[in-house]
């Protein structure tokens, strides 16, 4: 009996049916399309069983599956090593073509290269598409073709290119929904994947505050941020729809979306930044890396209210306000002289919106070791930051319940820590 000839669309960081480039092209192919998601053991095995991000992925896939069931189709969800899953699929079906959207992180590039090679040896054609960014890889470069390593000229070039094609094309996938493969695959529970529901949840995104974003974004007590970042991370929203909308709404908000692409371009062009300093001259810094100090930072017990409130918010919710992220990152690297990789790894474990390029980029910015970084002698004063951005203490009282009962003394005195950091950096920067 001959096997069914099909195409496969492989969902990864694009968990939506609407305005999905790779899915659009898959549905235009001549074969019925099986939509696939793989829970990759290589990633899952490193995560706690109550990881909230896995729960959000499962919830997003369930939503997609319900949409597909309305048109008599369904989502095929598999768990295992990616190569093993593809071996299974090629045995079950005559897979003619595979479509997916590109991912630019080092592990994803390596994985996709291996899968494409495997598919090619089995006479299956694969196609990849740009979907999670407006401009990818080498589309925004200097005149000599080299990547930008400073944000402002990158932003200017990005805007120049965008304005020449405004609005960016969006893709109406619904026109071709009839080409989904008609079947009812069993949809696994979270427990069947090996995980349990987390008390931490991803919040719905909210764009109603964007009009005056520049006036409110630095004040954590207002709680008027978009909560978009996890949705961008997992692709439950379209970057094209978002940028086309933001372009006419708020320049500062748009700039934040461009920062995201800048950091992606840096990680793609300089993959070493995932684990190493962009500026190798900073490799000689003698970090203290005191484990007890790191533990106090992680648990939000440093004695600096803004630092502690931020870390407690992160631990309890998976979120941290952007202004507060800068303060806690600076504190770890400068006040405690703990290298940025420790903090980056902790954020990677806890943040709902963890994205390697942005996380690494922002940590290296705070540490002064990155491509477009704060100078090493800039040391945020957590007390001044508190007075400027949470003057009434509303934010810190939300997360530090015992604050008014006589809060603990700071674990390190600011002036001493600042002088120590500047001296340590100055001595350690290689000539």
From TrEMBL:
Cofactor note: Binds 1 FAD per subunit.
Site (Electron transfer via tryptophanyl radical): 287, 340, 363
Binding residues annotated for FAD, in chain numbering: 213, 225-229, 253, 256-263
Claim: Transport is one of the keywords in the record: no
Keyword match Lyase: yes
Domain Photolyase/cryptochrome alpha/beta, first and last residues per copy: 5-134
Gene Ontology biological-process entries: nucleobase-containing compound metabolic process; response to stress
Alphabetically ordered keywords of this record: Chromophore, FAD, Flavoprotein, Lyase
Domain of life assignment: Bacteria
Cofactor(s) essential for the protein: (6R)-5,10-methylene-5,6,7,8-tetrahydrofolate; FAD
One Pfam family per UniProt: DNA_photolyase
Molecular function per GO: deoxyribodipyrimidine photo-lyase activity; DNA binding; FAD binding
Family designation: Belongs to the DNA photolyase family.
Protein name: Deoxyribodipyrimidine photo-lyase
Organism: Flavobacterium bomense
Lineage start: Bacteria, Pseudomonadati, Bacteroidota, Flavobacteriia, Flavobacteriales
């Amino acid at each position: 009996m001959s096997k069914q000839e099909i195409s496969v669309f492989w969902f990864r960081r694009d968990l939506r049916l609407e305005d999905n480039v790779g899915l659009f092209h898959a549905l235009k192919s001549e074969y019925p399309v099986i939509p696939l998601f793989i829970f990759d053991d290589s990633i899952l095995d490193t995560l706690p069983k109550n990881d909230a991000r896995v729960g959000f992925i499962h919830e997003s896939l369930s939503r997609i599956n319900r949409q597909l069931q309305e048109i008599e189709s369904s989502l095929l969800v598999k768990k295992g090593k990616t190569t093993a899953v593809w071996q299974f699929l090629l045995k079950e079906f005559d897979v003619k073509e595979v479509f997916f959207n590109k991912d630019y992180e080092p592990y994803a590039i390596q994985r996709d290269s291996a899968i494409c090679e495997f598919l090619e040896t089995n006479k299956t054609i694969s196609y990849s598409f740009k979907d999670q960014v407006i401009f990818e890889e080498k589309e925004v470069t200097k005149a000599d073709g080299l990547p930008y390593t400073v944000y402002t000229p990158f932003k200017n070039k990005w805007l120049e290119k965008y304005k020449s094609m405004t609005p960016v094309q969006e893709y109406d996938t619904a026109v071709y929904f009839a080409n989904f493969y008609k079947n009812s695959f069993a949809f696994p529970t979270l427990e069947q994947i090996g995980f349990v529901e987390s008390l931490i949840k991803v919040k719905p995104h909210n764009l109603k505050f964007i009009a005056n974003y520049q006036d409110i974004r630095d004040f954590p007590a207002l709680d008027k941020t978009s909560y978009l970042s996890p949705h961008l991370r997992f692709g439950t929203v379209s970057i094209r729809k978002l940028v086309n909308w933001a372009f006419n709404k708020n320049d500062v908000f748009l700039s934040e979306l461009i920062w995201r692409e800048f950091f992606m371009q840096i990680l793609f062009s300089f993959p070493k930044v995932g684990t190493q300093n962009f500026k190798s001259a900073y490799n000689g810094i003698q970090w203290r890396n005191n484990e007890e100090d790191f533990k106090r930072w992680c648990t939000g017990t440093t004695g600096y209210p803004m630092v502690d409130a931020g870390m407690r918010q992160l631990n309890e919710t998976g979120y941290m306000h952007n202004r507060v992220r800068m303060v806690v990152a600076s504190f770890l690297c400068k006040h405690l002289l703990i290298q940025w990789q420790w903090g980056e790894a902790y954020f990677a474990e806890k943040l709902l919106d963890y994205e390697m390029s942005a996380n690494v980029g922002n940590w290296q910015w705070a540490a002064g070791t990155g491509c477009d970084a704060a100078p090493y002698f800039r040391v945020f004063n957590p007390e001044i930051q508190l007075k400027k951005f949470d003057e009434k203490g509303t934010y810190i009282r939300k997360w530090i319940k015992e604050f008014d009962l006589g809060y603990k003394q700071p674990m390190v005195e600011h002036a001493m820590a600042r002088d120590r950091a500047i001296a340590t950096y100055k001595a350690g920067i290689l000539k």
